[in-house]
């Protein structure tokens, strides 16, 4: 008779938890997973997927405007927002169904409800207890709201994805990737958008040229981007929501989105009871094998101190299974992880920034940068610029960082990320023949470093 009910019990059915559970089940392990909301987690239901669908929908406005430059005569158009939201919801339902089938096909038992750790080998779900040789925590993250008077009138990215109508006037508080993405969505959908950022500019932590270029392009698109500006209070009035800002300024809006950060979804999981270590923000501390300090308990995804990206959670989940269930020790290299911001225009980046190169003491670097109007915008006359940048180690010639702002940035940078991961040199970039005419070829034709 088996010592435990399951070989693996996963708490949280998002991307990381599902990936690990499916693979473990496919390897013959007895696996269970629990979820207190819907199967799919942040990326599928409250983040990447629905958000990008909204980006696609809103960006059609620019495509329609540019069509005239190519000789197309298009009549009056309008965005039926409720119909678009209904289509988005139908797609999320479809994806959730796929996730459920994939778990079932892998022999994974699914329990609905919040999982709480009782001890290093026991999980309680809605009053029922289950034992497992290994427990994997994959509960993800959750939006954070600051303590501001009137904050109850604000929404987070969770609610922003389900608005029944487009607000006529909307404030976006925060300059991270979620903030700039929703600012672009609502702006192109026809709302008057004011974005309020506490810092000097948007996208803190990204390369400065990326930050400045995107800010410039967003303002060209019509976003009222106000930096070094704080919200001191929100008051509901007969005219909407009144936001009190610095220097006694006020703005009136119909909706306010707070995109000021996310926190690990680690409260009330029983971590304190069993002694699982977390950092001051509640993120679970793990080693290179995703182990916590408590034998028998692992963690992957946004609930940990690692990079909060869906592909990282999936990679860590699969590596955990390879290590524990396949006798194939598989650490994950978290260096040079590519990422994208689906702003309008989008951002793609991999490797270090120019500022990081100096802070890390990598030695002398050469910086290559190009800024140009993409061919696609020439006939429409759109005043929109693409920016591309390379950070190169002068001594080794190795390309340390690659950054882009412009159409198809994510699609272009994904391919170049392979080269960066493989340790490509600037000489190898130069020896690669470009695809002409394309924006991507600029990355292999930049010959002169900037001063």
Short précis:
With 451 residues, the protein is of the alpha/beta class. It has three domains: 6-143 and 263-325, FAD/NAD(P)-binding domain, CATH 3.50.50; 151-260, 3-Layer(bba) Sandwich (FAD/NAD(P)-binding domain), CATH 3.50.50; 345-444, Enolase-like, domain 1 (2-Layer Sandwich), CATH 3.30.390. It contains twelve helices and 21 strands.
Describe this structure in words.
It is a single chain. By secondary structure, this protein is of the alpha/beta class. It has three domains: 6-143 and 263-325, FAD/NAD(P)-binding domain; 151-260, FAD/NAD(P)-binding domain; 345-444, Enolase-like, domain 1, CATH 3.30.390.30. 31% of the residues lie in helices and 24% in strands. It is built from twelve helices and 21 strands. It has helices at 15-26, 41-46, 48-67, 81-105, 157-160, 177-189, 208-221, 271-274, 310-325, 354-359, 409-421, 426-431; strands at residues 6-11, 31-35, 109-112, 115-119, 122-125, 128-137, 141-143, 169-173, 192-196, 224-226, 231-237, 240-245, 250-253, 255-258, 262-264, 297-299, 339-341, 347-351, 365-372, 386-393, 399-405. The strands form five sheets. Strands 1, 2, 3, 4, 5, 6 and 16 form a seven-stranded mixed sheet that branches. Strands 17-18-21-20-19 form a five-stranded antiparallel sheet, with helices on both faces. Strands 10-9-8-14 form a four-stranded parallel sheet. A hairpin with a 5-residue loop joins β20 and β21. α1 runs parallel beside α4 (81-105). The longest helix is centred in the N-terminal third of the chain and has 25 residues, at 81-105. The radius of gyration is 24 Å and the shape is globular. The model has no long low-confidence stretch (mean pLDDT 94).
């Amino acid at each position: 008779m088996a010592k435990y009910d399951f070989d693996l019990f996963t708490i949280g059915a998002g991307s990381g938890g599902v990936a690990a559970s499916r693979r473990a089940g496919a390897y013959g392990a007895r696996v269970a997973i629990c979820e207190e909301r819907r199967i799919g987690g942040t990326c599928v239901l409250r983040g990447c997927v629905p958000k990008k669908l909204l980006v696609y929908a809103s960006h059609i406005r620019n495509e329609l405007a540019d069509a005239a430059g190519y000789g197309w005569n298009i009549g009056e158009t309008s965005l039926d927002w409720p119909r678009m939201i209904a289509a988005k919801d139908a797609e999320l339902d479809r994806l959730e169904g796929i996730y459920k089938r994939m778990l079932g096909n892998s022999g994974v038992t699914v329990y609905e409800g919040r999982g709480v750790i009782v001890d290093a080998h026991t999980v309680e779900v809605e009053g029922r207890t289950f034992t497992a040789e290994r427990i994997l925590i994959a509960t993800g993250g959750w939006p954070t709201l600051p303590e501001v008077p009137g904050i109850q009138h604000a929404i987070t990215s969770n609610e922003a994805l389900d608005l029944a109508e487009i607000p006529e006037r909307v404030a976006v508080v925060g300059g991270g990737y979620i903030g700039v993405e929703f600012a672009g969505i609502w702006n192109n959908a026809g709302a008057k958008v004011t974005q309020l950022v506490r810092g000097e500019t948007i996208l803190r932590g990204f390369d400065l040229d990326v930050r400045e270029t995107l800010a410039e392009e967003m303002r060209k698109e019509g976003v009222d981007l106000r930096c070094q500006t704080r919200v001191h209070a929100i008051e509901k009035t007969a005219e909407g929501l009144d936001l009190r800002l610095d220097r006694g300024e006020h703005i009136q809006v119909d909706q306010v989105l707070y995109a000021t950060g996310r926190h690990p979804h680690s409260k009330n999981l029983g971590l304190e009871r069993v002694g699982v270590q977390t950092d001051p923000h509640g993120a679970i501390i793990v080693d290179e094998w995703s182990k916590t300090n408590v034998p028998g308990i692992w963690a992957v995804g946004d609930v940990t101190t690692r990079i909060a990206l869906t592909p990282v959670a999936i990679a860590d989940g699969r590596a955990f299974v390879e290590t524990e269930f396949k006798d194939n020790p598989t650490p994950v290299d978290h260096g040079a992880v590519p990422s994208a911001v689906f702003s309008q225009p989008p951002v793609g980046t991999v490797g270090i920034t120019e500022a990081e190169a100096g802070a890390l003491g990598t030695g002398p670097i050469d910086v290559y940068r190009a800024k140009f109007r993409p061919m696609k915008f020439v006939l429409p006359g759109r005043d929109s610029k693409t920016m591309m940048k390379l950070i190169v180690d002068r001594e080794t010639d190795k390309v340390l960082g690659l950054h882009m702002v412009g159409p198809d940035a994510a699609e272009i940078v994904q391919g170049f990320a392979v080269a960066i991961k493989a340790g490509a040199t600037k000489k190898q970039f130069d020896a690669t023949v470009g695809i002409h005419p394309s924006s991507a070829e600029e990355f292999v034709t930049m010959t002169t470093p900037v001063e």
